[in-house]
Hints:
- It is globular, with a radius of gyration of 14 Å.
- The chain is about 40% helix and about 20% strand.
- The longest helix is centred in the N-terminal third of the chain and has 15 residues, at about 25-40.
- The model has no long low-confidence stretch (mean pLDDT about 90).
- With about 120 residues, the chain is an alpha+beta fold.
- Helix 1 packs across helix 3 and helix 2 (about 60-70) crosses helix 3 (about 80-85).
- The N and C termini lie far apart (about 35 Å).
- Strand 5 and strand 6 form a beta hairpin.
- A three-stranded antiparallel sheet has the order 2-1-3, with helices on one face. It has a three-stranded antiparallel sheet with strand order 4-6-5.
- The chain has helices at about 25-40, 60-70, 80-85, 95-105, and strands at about 10, 20, 45-50, 75-80, 110-115, 115-120.
Amino acid sequence: MNEQEPAPFVANCTDCGERKETATPNEIVEFYRRHRSLTGHDVEWEYADYGSAGKPPDYADLKSVVFELGETFEDGVPLGLVTAAMGERGRTVSETLDELHELRMTGHVWEPKDDHVSAF
């Protein structure tokens, strides 16, 4: 990523203004985890480039978003893309990760590898 090209993934903390620009979506999730552990603040998405996955349909429910995005990813959808898609629906990273945890515990989604999810 150079100075002229905008970062494909950008998120921020609305409480303190901390901002993260990165080349991969899961780095936003890592930023959220670090920031939350230090400050207790949540993180919201500003921008996400879905690339070859294409922008997800306007489904309101998380499981449908995971299922649709999963069509493009063999080893599961990166958590960062899932949280970005739900961010467009007004959800914070924390809210999305909490709901994903519930879906995993009830068997609706699974984690084929770390920080990637797939829906049944």
